[in-house]
Amino acid sequence: MKAPVLNMTPRTVSRVRMAAILGILGPGLVSGFADNDAGGISTYSVAGVKFGYDLLWVLLASQIVLFFTQEVGARLGLATGQGLAGLVRERYGVRWAAFMISTMLIANIGSIVAEFAGCSAALGLFGWPNWASALLAATVVVLLLTRGSYSKVQYLFVAVGIGVSLAYFVSALLAHPDWGQAGSALIVPRLASSPAYWVAVVATVGTTITPWGQAFIQSYVADKRLGPEDLVGERLDVGLGALLTNLIAGFIVVACAAGLWATGQHNVTDVATIARGLEPLAGPATTVLFAVGLLAASFLGLGVVPLTSAYAACEAFGWETGVDWRWREAPAFYGLMVFFVAFAAMFILIVPSNALIQVMFSAQVVNCLLLPFVLVFVMRLSADKQLMGPLVSGRILQAIGWAGTALLVVLSMTLVVTSVAGIGAA
Amino acid sequence: MLYLSQAIGRPVRDKLGEPIGTVADLIVAIGDRYPPVTGIVVKTNGREIFLHWQSVSSLDATGATLQTTAIDISKFHQRPNEIRLKLDLMDRQIVDIDGRKVVRVNDLRLDEVEGALHLVAVDVGASGLLRRLGVEGPWRVLARGLHRGVPERYIDWEDVDPVERTIASVKLRVPHKGLAELHPADLATIIDQLSRNDRVGVIASLDDEAAADAIGEMEPETQVDILEDLEPGRAADILEEMDPDEAADLVADLSEESREEILGLMERDEAEEVQELMTYAEDTAGGIMTTEFVAVPAELTAAQTIDRLRELEPNAETIYYVYVTDAAGRLVGVLSLRDLIVAKPDKPLSTFMYAEPVAVKTDASQEDVTEVVARYNLLAVPVVDEGGILCGIVTVDDAIDTLLPHPSRLRMPRIFGRTSSGSER
Prior knowledge:
Chain A is mainly α. Chain A has helices spanning 10-24, 27-35, 38-51, 56-80, 84-124, 130-147, 150-174, 179-187, 195-208, 211-223, 231-259, 271-282, 285-317, 331-350, 356-382, 385-388, 395-425. Chain B is elongated. Classes of the chains: A mainly alpha, B alpha+beta. Chains A and B meet through helix 1, helix 5, helix 7, helix 10 and helix 13 of A and strand 10, helix 3, helix 7, helix 9 and helix 12 of B.
């Protein structure tokens, strides 16, 4: 049968195209930007201030690992249409699911505390007391949950994120960094034996590749109902996300290395020091810029991290998920959210304000230590032919995935060993 | 009463009490109200063997005992309507038809019904979860201490609809009988919660009309996804069942490739109607009108017209007005359903119709249409072309859409909230 001639108005055609492009370019980008949350920005800053350009190679390495872990996560979502937690439950049963969820929740509580700390640190630059910023952060979470206009808000965050990234780019340029040194540090790994160095390495990896990021990308892809035919677009999206994330991270490190480390200021106790350290280079607006950037990053994280973890838990246990349900209909979901917010707020209230940056930094270390537990599930699931069909990980992808996971385990072990040795020596 | 989790992993003994393996799974035959257990999977020496239920003399939380001493390893054939409880159902998602949502199976409850073990209910409550985690006992003690109960929730197997992917190991067409009886809006809500593969499975099992009704209640993006995932011939059948204006909006959103394929498979006049509607800009009277309306010649009497209505069985939204057209199809009058019913049966329409009906042109803006509908208190307004030929009508529900703020579309991931179809309009 011959297809009838179509009389299409241009309007509908362009609408379809836009939807298709927006439809695929998304999960990886949003996930990437969300990686540069409060914990990310503070960790990169600390890394730059303490170790100069030395940690740039870690960024490059973790970008590569990030690409592969996110790619696997996206592929799992494309092939199964399910989130990570649900898949673990179906394949390995309740106990393993409970184990993975607990791991993720612990890591996420750390991240949420870090977002609260980011808020406090940023607003502290304007003289806000801790309790006021904790209150603001809690309000933001509640508003995000109850107002339902989340989809728009998140683009605002990403937009602010891009703006802030440009600011870091400019400050990095203005700081007249030693590009040669930066370039060689990017490619040639520098291995030091000091425990502090390894803590910084672990934190940098931990803030880039996160347990929640793994759950996030998979659920995002599944909930967008993308399928195997979107594989190429999704890989592009994930690659772009990983690249942009680490480009921004690199500029933060470079800006801090050139602005503070190079001038002999190696100790950071709070974000005010970092902001003021950059001031001579980029002018008095730097403090404001830095504070706004950190605040936006915190809100971005607050919008993504608690939701992701509550979502994962509810998915695994079959509870009603999502902000569309009423409180009474989804008590577990909202209960978890309330717990996260209350815990983080309480924590911030008892932490002295000069320890905030340490809190953010430590949360990333915890993230990295718990990451292998989540990745093992991801790697095993992605190698399951029955589950993945044509999207199953080939030998090469499997080898890379396991190598990355093994690397993280080695890294975590190194940290534990050096810390124990450090304590023993002291 | 026995929970599946209590039997799994327990020892299997032969007639003499010699242990020969452990319980790996149970097999039931789907189809009856409560599926009877028809077989047992025993794990022995690292491999699984299937045994007929006849060879099992007892099964409880302490394990299974066989009728025989020797295991009959005669090839067990899993019949097409049989599923494995642990492999196919445990921890999977199911549709709770009564509660209209998708839930996860925490445990399965088996009971003796008429002397045989049957699957009777799905445990989706906290107690099932705690039992699986192995902490039900301690938790109950704790809960009793706090004078709180442990929430238990079961769904009768009758109210369960196993979603398609669940039954991956068997090529079983799940009938989804329960789902088909739901209101289309509820069905749309459930389908919205399912993953892509399951969604297509559920739609595939519905008849064209039910599928069209359910799809009509969904978000535009979801509609497009589903239609493109369906087999094109089926998609064409479903589109034919939809209101032409809805179908046109949907077809316009499809990718060019599927659009041509699906339109080619639709019946000729239906496809032409849809294409004609697609030529109008979306925010004009032509873009929002439906081509389903009742038009009759002026010579008919009231009784003949009512007979015609019975014959045509128009939709609820288009039955309220009968339009009168001349031989060329030009709009010459209009009657309300009330006019028809209160008129003497043998009166010709021309004697009591409104001879100067309010109408809008196909290129009138949506705002103009809304204004006309509001000013004249109409349930529907006829749409005519340049020559006064009646092309379609805009019903009040489509007209007032412009007055409402544009609903936030489901562009964003579900992770940020399930937009139920209820919020669409």
